[in-house]
Amino acid sequence: GIDQSTSTWWRNRASLAINSSTPSNQNLVKVLQKEFRQLRRYGGNPDTFLAGSDFIEALESEIREKGNYSDTGFMNNGKNDAGMADLSFKGLAIEYDPTLDDDSLSKYGYVLDCKTIKPMVMEGEDMKSHNPSRPEDKYVLYRAVTWTGGLICNQRNANGVYSIA
């Protein structure tokens, strides 16, 4: 009976349409900085950061705008390397998720606390064994085990979704 639209405890953090058109303004970095603080406010501890290609490119543009390169990037072992090190934020690696691009969500980033997200089995559907009859013309036995359930989240305000405009 709790209305999730009025109770922030029952909503995930979200900041959609972050203006990233001017990398020198550092809008994306500023929003992420503020949001990480809020994700930890109620005991959340983000451990997974998934992002689409456009989101990662916007973050890379902001980092390049400030001239922040690492030893795995600009000058590495005396060689000019125009690449940039893999991104991380507050020590959390930002992982590229190609399925976001496939689903037209390349401008999105998801910060998750996986301890708050769990699979929950449907009653009577856990490790259900299936033993179909053997075909009369083959000497084989078929066996299968299925599991049916869904994902539940017990603390949605420890997870966030962010997108760029």
Key descriptive features of the protein:
alpha+beta; 165 residues; single chain; extended; two-stranded antiparallel sheet; six-stranded mixed beta sheet
Account of the 3D structure:
The protein has 165 residues and is of the alpha+beta class. The protein has three helices and twelve strands. Strands 1-12-7-2-6-5 form a six-stranded mixed sheet. It has a two-stranded antiparallel ribbon with strand order 3-4. A hairpin with a 2-residue loop joins strand 3 (75-76) and strand 4. The longest helix is centred in the first third of the chain and has 15 residues, at 27-41.
Layout of helices and strands:
Elements: E1 13-18, H1 27-41, E2 48-51, H2 53-65, E3 75-76, E4 79-80, E5 88-89, E6 92-96, H3 98-102, E7 108-112, E8 117-121, E9 128-130, E10 144-146, E11 149-153, E12 160-164
Parallel strand pairs: 1-12, 2-6
Antiparallel strand pairs: 2-7, 3-4, 5-6, 7-12, 8-11, 9-10
In summary, what is this structure?
With 165 residues, this protein is of the alpha+beta class.
Mean pLDDT: 88
Tell me, what's the shape? Answer: extended
Main sheet properties: 6 strands, mixed
Estimate percent helicity: 10-25%
The share of residues in extended strands comes to 25-35%
Order of helices and strands: EHEHEEEEHEEEEEE
What Rg is obtained from the alpha carbons, in whole angstroms?
A: 22 Å
- Given as residue ranges, the uncertain stretches (5+ residues, pLDDT < 50) are none
